[in-house]
Known about the structure:
Low-confidence stretches: 1-13
Mean pLDDT: 94
Shape: elongated
Largest sheet: 6 strands, parallel
Strand content: 5-15%
Radius of gyration: 25 Å
Helix content: 25-40%
Number of strands: 13
Number of helices: 18
Structural class: alpha/beta
Amino acid sequence: MALPPAHPPTSFxxxxxxxxxxxxxxxxxxxxxxxxCGKTLGEFGADVIKIEAPExxxxxxxxxxxxxxxxxxWQVQSRNKRSVALDLRQKEGQDIARQLxxxxxxxxxxxxxxxxxxxxxxPEELHALNPGLVxxxxxxxxxxxxxxxxxxxxxxxxxxxxxRHLTGEPGRVPVxxxxxxxxxxxxxxxxxxxxxxxxxxxxxxxxxxxxxxxLHEAVFNVMESLIPEYSAFGAVREAAGSAxxxxxxSNAYPCADGWVLVAGNGDxxxxxxxxxxxxxxxxxAPDLANNTGRVARVEEIDAAxxxxxxxxxxxxxxxxxxxxxxxxxxxxxAKDIAEDPHYRARDMLLTQQTRDGYSVEVPGIVxxxxxxxxxxxxxxxxxxxxxDAVLAEAGLxxxxxxxxxxxxxxx
Length: 411
C-alpha cells in the first residue's frame, strides 16, 4: 500500500542516514508505555515493526476521539511504524514472532510478567536465538519482587511512586496530572535503557540484555527530594496545590481574566519581581535575600504578588514580568498551543497526512538533534498493512503467507 506523504518539519532536510537507521525494533506492547518507546525510536530512524492482534489490534486505535474509524491519538503514537497482524496465542504465530525477533536488535513489550515465558519467549530462549537482542520489558511492578504478578497501569504506578499524593489541593482528593504521565515516564526510561544497551553492545562489545522498567519506579525516579527529606527529617511531603513547597515564590496567581504562573525563586529574580510589582520593600528585606527566609514568609509574599496580579490581565502581567526578566507564563489550553507562534517556529506543530485521507496537526519531535533530527517518514498504519511485506522479508513465500492467513494466524 502506497503511503500518503508525511509532512516533515520545514527547518531541516531529513538526515541521511538517520541516527538509528539500521536498528530494527519489534514492538509487542500495546496502549501507551511500550508503544511510546517505539514511537520515539522510530522518529529517529529505527525500523519499528508493531505486532498486533488480528481483528482488534492495539486498543489505542479506539481510545478517545475517533475520526474515520480510528483514534486521532493513534496517528501520533504509531507514525513511522509497520503493522503486522499476528495471533501470538497460536503456536504458528509464536514461531513467526521468534523468527522476526531473531533478526531484530530490540524487542519492546509491556505485557504482564510471565506472558512471554508462557509463549516460549523468555529472555533465555530469545537470547539463545539472538545473543545481541536488547529486550525492554515494561510492567506495573517489574519482573521481580512480591508484587510482580499484580496488574498495574500507569495510574497505579503514579500512586505507588508517590506522585498522586502530591497532586491537588491540601486535604482534597488526589488528582491525576491529566495525561498518562506514569506510562510516558516509563517509556522514556525504557528508551534510555535501550539506547544505553545498544551503545554498550556496539562500542564495548557487550551482548544483549534485559531492561526491566516498572511503572512505579519510573515515577519514583523523578520524585526529587521526597525520600531524602523523610530519611533525614521524618518529613512527609504533602499536596500543596499550585505552589512549590520549600521554594519561594513559585505559584499560580489570579488575574482579571485567568491565572498566571510566576517563578520568582532565584535571589536576584525575587528582587526584580518585587520591584516590578511595586514592593521594593520586600525585595530589599535582608531576611528575604535567600530562599530560606522567603519560605518562612511565603504567605505574605504570595499575597503581595496575588494582590498585584488580580488587578491586571494575564497579558499585562506577562508584559511587565517579561520586561523585568522574571519567569512567568499563562496556563495554556490546546487552543493556546495551536495558535502560539513559538510552537510553530520550532516545528512543534506539524501537519500529518493520515492513511484515511485527511490531514491532522500533530506534535513535533523531541528532542531536537542538530545533525540527525527526527522525522515523520510514514503515517500510522491500518491494522496489518505491512503483514505481507514483513513476512516476505523474513523469507516466507506467498503460498506460506496465504496459508497462515487462511488459518487466522495473520491478517
